[in-house]
Amino acid sequence: MASNTEVIVCPNPDCKNLTIKTAIYEYNAQYQQTGEKIKEWNLAPESSAKPFPDYIPRALLEDYEEACLIQNGSPKASATLSRRCLQGMIRDFWKTKKNRLVDEIEALKDKVDANTWEAIDSVRHVGNIGAHMEKDVNLIIDVDPEEAGLLIWLIETLFEEWYIKRHDREQKMAAIVGVAKAKKELKKAPPGNV
């Protein structure tokens, strides 16, 4: 076996944060070269979770951050957390509350584009692998870290498209209303006081 550690320092003088990853590889001593990667770890930061604004509900951010943290060590559990986060997002953002996630997702069908809807429904299917035991307990369907990463990517995308875009839109609309009010006040002021 061989190992490799990668250290990256953020070039931004205000940041200078470190990213440290290490990996072990198969090693062929005869040819003195590394082969296939066996395992990789994020040492700093511990997960690949991106920072998101605090106007996204804390419970959703916690599920997302934990899904990122365990993506490599327990991808099945990570997929389950992505499923849970998705259900919370649907309930919070779309104000949908049905008894089953499948029904909540079905209620979104005419509210989101077809590709997004299909991806959301796919998170449910993959997340079900960790959330529900198969009828045949000897049937083991696994989730690998890359698959868990795709579910995390969808959560990040929906945070951006649903929460951040809505927040930015609300801020800009409020700014336009503020400009109009200020102009209206200027019209009311006597001519010499402007």
Describe this structure in words.
The protein has 194 residues and is an alpha+beta fold. It has 2 domains: 46 residues, no CATH class; 124 residues, Four Helix Bundle (Hemerythrin (Met), subunit A), CATH 1.20.120. 51% of the residues lie in helices and 16% in strands. It contains 5 helices and 3 strands. Strands 1-2-3 form a 3-stranded antiparallel sheet, with no helix packed on it. Strand 2 and strand 3 form a beta hairpin. Helix 2 runs parallel beside helix 5. The protein is flat. The model has no long low-confidence stretch (mean pLDDT 87).
Q: Which CATH architecture of the largest domain would you pick?
A: Up-down Bundle
Write down the Rg: 24 Å
The overall number of domains is 2
* Ends apart, CA distance between termini: 77 Å
On the 0 to 100 scale, the average pLDDT is 87
Structural class: alpha+beta
Strand-residue proportion: 15-25%
CATH topology call of the largest domain: Four Helix Bundle (Hemerythrin (Met), subunit A)
Sheet with most strands: 3 strands, antiparallel
**Strand order of the biggest β-sheet:** 1-2-3
For the secondary structure, the number of strands is 3
The ordered H/E elements are EEEHHHHH
The coarse overall form would be: flat
Assembly context of the chains? single chain
What is the CATH top level name of the largest domain?
A: Mainly Alpha
Q: Into which percent range does the helicity of residues fall?
A: 40-55%
Helix count equals: 5
